């Protein structure tokens, strides 16, 4: 399969009044559909960075922001297949009795995804559909139509119930609502945060940002579903997966440093 | 240190209309303060049981409930120290910059614990107190006084915000609210579910049940805090730990079998 | 127009530990489509009853429940037209600039009806429809399909947002959700509580109870809409109207007497 | 009693894309403690104003904002007593059995005040206190300490439950929370919106605005309580009263005109 090449990365500039612990989830690692190279981290004052894996196996980077201004930049090149997300409309659901042990956690309620509250909606809308990939497509379609993408529409504590009610959200909310419906039907679903280029699609966004979408477990593997775009895409590079956005934050700070600047890049380049 | 001995266990009887996947978290394993022996599992029809560890390392037991009535019984003996929960009122908090990587997850928001919502309350009440074990005691005392223990007062979806509002809860709610305040202050805290005997305390409860409490990370280790009882106790046997009750359910079923009977035992015996 | 005749009424039996103020809204008065006669009130010990009108003009009856058991019975005959609810599918909406002063209050948010929260949903679903009676029918149809009638599904504090989320409710919830959408579109809507016979419809309910529905202001008058039944009905007898169920409670008690018994009657009789 | 004199008023400038109905509640009328004179209304283009009273007897002013920019100015002089709010610490509560019929509505739940949810808190904190004015003072003191006055802390849909949880609010939230606790105890309480000068108090506010406070029914009359300031004040001029801020909005518009400018004046003048 032919490949394409991305330049990706981000810069964060924080101003701190006191030393502040911070964890970044911005640097992907090699994965089935993306190979990384020329990875570089740079940080003001050459502060020590500590790289580790979290509970879900996601690569994380810790540092202590000193008093004053600190700028951290991550950059890498990624080689990705020149192909859309995998699709198999005939992929069956795996009954709960057959799910792998380590997948079960993705059937449970979490901070932003409350299948225990929206279960009635899920069963009323999707409970009668034949199980399988196409049912998950129906969920994706529904969420895509239900929510109107609205920049700035949600606050950090907004849950899937909140956005179901208001009908507005950003990409994380599309992911949360889709996850919630899947879990209510006992279909494992998880939250994915990563880079996604505008590649071979009409250039609809002025400002590039990180993206969030959903992975659903069907027929023995995870499949990408993107309720915000409601179509397969090319070039996803996963940074982290988890139960919802509470698990996979770009940056977690223990304190309240001022974010002065944040830029994100993910563009196609020549190899 | 001298020991004491417990007989513990539980029985669940379910009636299912269709084969139903179920996961039980009822069988503890050896732990720093409890040694298990004479462990037995029995289940109607000698159904196969599958034992595994979840994301947090908790022992879990899976089976498929067949159509009809299934009874599962777990029983074991536990040797526990004849000693109250460890206490060190001078134990310091660990600043976030020094926390172990794998403890960080217990500072985040989760399904039932929303430090992102109750942060203002936490800082107003406890933010000015000197960091350390005594501050956590102040939180325990506050939660103990804030909530009135009320059987049947909460529904399965009640969060720490809900019980903070109503002022009523059961042991899981005491644990959730205490966890929430700790996390808001950047103190790692987790939910513990297990067996706890009525041992050397006035016999206040007519019916024995599972119990839930809180563990807080201070000075390089986890400490038990029990906001429901607001005092150290003897004989805790941990079954599972997690971010909150969503992670550590006694039983998770994928379907809606009818729970006909549930009994729990945890009594002192002669060795 | 030919008439039909109803025997209606109710009995409440309370047990009080202390004298308790109580207000009953159970006795209708003459209205455009119902004439009352043979009205009787009876109460244990011939306690004094005080009849008055509330803020909305509804007939209310106050008494003080003494310590012990008190039984109150209301009974009356009503003559109602042998005709279904009025319908005019061509009735136009009245623009807010033309609404009567005293109708404006029914465009505002209230305890159980939050057009300020569900406004996005209302405009997305109904904003593009031509204004008028048929748009209100579309709302009625939507609410009827959205909510599954489920006895015991809601708690006393459940709002239109709550039942929109769960998809389940009883008649008051159907009324609240319909009111909410209308108000979000600047269409005045109010809550009605009253008696409704099972008359000329298949006898679908085993137990008779009070009923709640919606009135909507169109073309200079109020029209009945019943989202629970989603069809015109015969024989409605209005007891009270208000912004929502908080305004129009069958019984409000200032204290917590034990309701031992409640029966409601509304049956067709020969004149 | 000697008098003092205020110049009060406000200006609103709206830009509308279409003719928009609007209701203003900004013009007080004579009341026990304030006499109005030199009242003037001016509006762009000399648009017709329609004055009426709402359900609660509040003076309201309707107009239709035409397409384009409209400026409305209200101004008046008020003579007020040179005296602090009335106080009688020995005033008794009136038992619900003795409350006037038309006061009962102020014991019920409303859009922003949910005594049905916060009842447990109210009874736990204030239920044991002797009934009367001093108990209401204890509520005022509690609310004053519980909420931190925080400009911009609440959104328009924030209820008393929401601000109880976050611990932050503006003057309307202080009023709502105090009302909620009173009603939970069966003490009638209502929301007041009006003008209040900075008179004989340290000048703590840079920008003058409307103010909201609470009136509580004790001993046969309404008394002013101001949980935001937690002290008696001089010079209140009531514009409107109601069950909560949903009833008493400065401006209600049926559409979404752009508020370009709003200024409020309430200053002492020489007679």
Automatic annotation (TrEMBL), chains A, B, C, D:
Cross-referenced SMART domains, in alphabetical order? TGc
- Return the InterPro entries for the record: Papain-like_cys_pep_sf, Transglutaminase-like
Transglutaminase-like domain location: 163-229
Indicate the secretion signal residues.
Answer: none
Q: What is this protein called?
A: Transglutaminase family protein
């Amino acid at each position: 399969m032919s490949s394409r090449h991305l330049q990706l990365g981000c810069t964060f500039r924080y101003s701190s009044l006191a030393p502040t612990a911070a964890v970044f989830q911005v640097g992907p690692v090699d994965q089935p559909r993306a190979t990384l190279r020329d990875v570089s981290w740079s940080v003001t004052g050459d502060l020590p960075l500590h790289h580790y894996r979290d509970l879900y196996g996601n690569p994380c980077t810790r540092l202590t922001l000193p008093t004053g201004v600190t700028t951290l930049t991550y950059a890498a090149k990624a080689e990705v297949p020149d192909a859309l997300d995998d699709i198999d409309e005939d992929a069956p659901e795996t009954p709960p009795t057959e799910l792998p042990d380590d997948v079960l956690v993705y059937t449970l309620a979490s901070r932003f995804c409350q299948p225990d509250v929206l279960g009635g909606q899920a069963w009323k809308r999707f409970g009668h559909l034949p199980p399988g990939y196409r049912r998950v497509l129906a969920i994706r379609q529904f969420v895509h139509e239900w929510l109107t993408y609205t920049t700035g529409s949600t606050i950090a504590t907004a849950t899937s119930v909140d956005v179901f009610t208001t009908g507005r959200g950003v990409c994380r909310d599309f992911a949360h609502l889709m996850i919630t419906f899947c879990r209510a039907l006992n279909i494992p679903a998880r939250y994915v945060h990563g880079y996604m280029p505008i590649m071979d699609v009409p250039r609809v966004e002025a400002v590039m940002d990180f993206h969030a979408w959903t992975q659903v477990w069907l027929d023995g593997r995870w499949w990408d579903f993107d309720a915000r775009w409601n179509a397969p895409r090319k070039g996803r590079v996963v940074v982290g997966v988890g139960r919802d956005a509470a698990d996979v934050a770009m940056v977690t700070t223990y304190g309240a440093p001022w974010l002065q600047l944040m830029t994100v890049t993910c563009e196609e380049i020549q190899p």
